[in-house]
Amino acid sequence: MKANGNVLYVTLNNEESRVCTETEPCWRIQDAINIAVTGDIIEISQGRYYENIVFGSASSSSSVTNLTLIGAGELYTQIISENNSDDDDNDNDNDNDNDNDNDNDNDNDNDNDGGDENTEISSSSGTSSESNNNIFAEGGGSSGGGGFTSADTIADVWYANVHMEKIGFIHKEEISAEAAFTKPTKRAIGIHVRRTATHFSLFNCSIHRDIVYDSNQIVTSTNAGNDGSADDGSRALIVSDGANNIHINSNVFSGDYEDHIHASTSNSIFEYNSMTRARRIGMLILNENNNNNNNNGGNNTIKRNQVTDSVTNDGIQIQTSNNRLYNNFALGNYGAGIKLCGMDVNNDCLSPYDQWSQSNNNTLVGNRVDNNNGGDVVNNGKYNEISSIPFEDPEDIDNSFDDFDDDTVNPKPSTTNDLESSAKTKAAITTTTTGTAIFSMITLMITILFY
Predict the structure, then answer these.
(1) What's the rounded Cα separation, in Å, for the pair 214 and 210?
(2) Are 285 and 322 in contact (CB under 8 A)?
(3) Looking at the DSSP assignment, which residues form a beta bridge with residue 153?
(4) DSSP line for 326-341
(5) Distance in angstroms between the alpha carbons of the first and the last residue of the chain
(6) Cα separation of 260 and 146, whole Å?
(7) Before 352, cis peptide (omega within 30)?
(8) Which neighbouring-strand residues pair with 180?
């Protein structure tokens, strides 16, 4: 927990409250954000919150900064896109009156995520006005899929120094049989860290997306057909150019997002994260301001991340310079395990890559790369130092992935009910073990007495 201010409380209950005290907590997270001041901590109790939350906007004059959102655990406190809500399972179903001062703000801030957004937002009617959750327009090209006018963003962050911890973010999208082969009309975005949101941090959270047919058949790379989800512009985490000095630590990214981490940032840290089966790419570190030779971005530390089974592209792709990649795992990806982009614009790096988006002077030490179809480490840049010797970092913590193996990592329960069941099972095992130990001691004492 980073902030040091007042504590605001959010919990699910049957009556609407916007006071956010411990005795009279808010029942929606957005209400707490709206009344928070610099340094406040927002504690979110266990539950499923069907909301899309917003911290400021492009046109906001708010000076709020240094907010902390902390849940009860990513399996216990879950923020589910309100667009995915089911009235039969909506714990905080409401009238969608978010009382957010930033509703209907225009987003003409030149903020983009590497070609995915245009500064000119055009709706289907040709206007440029949109609400907070309609903040994207696709520029086309291989980076974004093209044609989108809006986004379904679970958390849109404009404030600086926002810290999120122990929260699960979920998109769950039902696709009917009739719509199974049509492209979604909105981009699913887990968290968007805007250019003004410097020093953002995300610890011990999860971001997950399910695309499910109405027959409950999960869409995978092998059965997706022509549904368009492989190039639907979805992102688990976007970090826009200018949002520097961020820290992404010990999070789980999974499910049907096109990219899991898509970041144009400098002086940032990505460590101990897991990215599994992105539809396109696990982690992309790019130079958003292309077409110049300033080579913006770079100087990031990327260590001990696990990136596996990216479906159509690389595990990790780097388009900037002076980064450090230590002890990462890139296994079983369709493209390269780790790719360093170079001068050749045809070297298969993602749009908007050009000759200025080259990856030079990087240090790669101790990365485990194996069984990647496009090569393990592909070095198209210059002056990169690449070594397979494990890197010893005195700042590393005990929960490293040094000995990572699928057989040694226990799968986490996928629902709260599963978690409770798992806890009961552990308790039963503990009780049984304790009883066995007591019985053995009694038997030993009787044996001693009689002999």
Answers:
(1) 12
(2) no
(3) 189
(4) ES-EEES-SS-SEEE-
(5) 60
(6) 19
(7) yes
(8) none
- Tens digit of pLDDT for each residue in 202-254? 999 999 998 765 544 444 444 443 344 445 789 999 999 999 999 999 999 99
Residues paired with 253 in a beta bridge: 207, 275
Cβ atoms within 10 Å of 260's Cβ, excluding its own: 31
- Amino acid in position 62: S
Sign for the pseudo-dihedral over CA of 242, 162, 121, 284? positive
Residue type, 88: D
Are the beta carbons of 362 and 385 closer than 8 angstroms? yes
Partnered with residue 385 across adjacent β-strands are 363
If one counts every other C-beta atom within 10 angstroms of the C-beta of residue 23, the result is: 7
Distance CA 363, CA 23 (A): 52
How many degrees, rounded to 5, is the angle at CA 275 between CA 269 and CA 281?
95
Cα separation, 412 vs 432, in Å, equals 23
Average pLDDT over residues 157-171: 97
Burial class (CB in 10 A: 0-12, 13-18, 19+), 130: buried
Q: 189: closest CA among 134, 242, 127, 230?
A: 134
Q: Is the pTM of this model over 0.85?
A: no
* Nearest of 304, 303, 317, 447 to residue 381 by alpha carbon: 317
Give the model confidence (pLDDT) of 250-290 as tens digits: 999 999 899 999 999 999 999 999 999 999 999 999 877 65
pLDDT of res. 350? 82
203 strand-pairing partners: 165, 249
Cα distance between residue 436 and residue 278, in whole Å: 46
| Angstrom distance (rounded) from CA 138 to CA 386 | 36
* pLDDT tens digits for range 88-117: 444 554 444 444 444 333 343 444 444 444
Secondary-structure percent of the chain, ordered helix, strand, coil, rounded to 5: 10, 25, 60
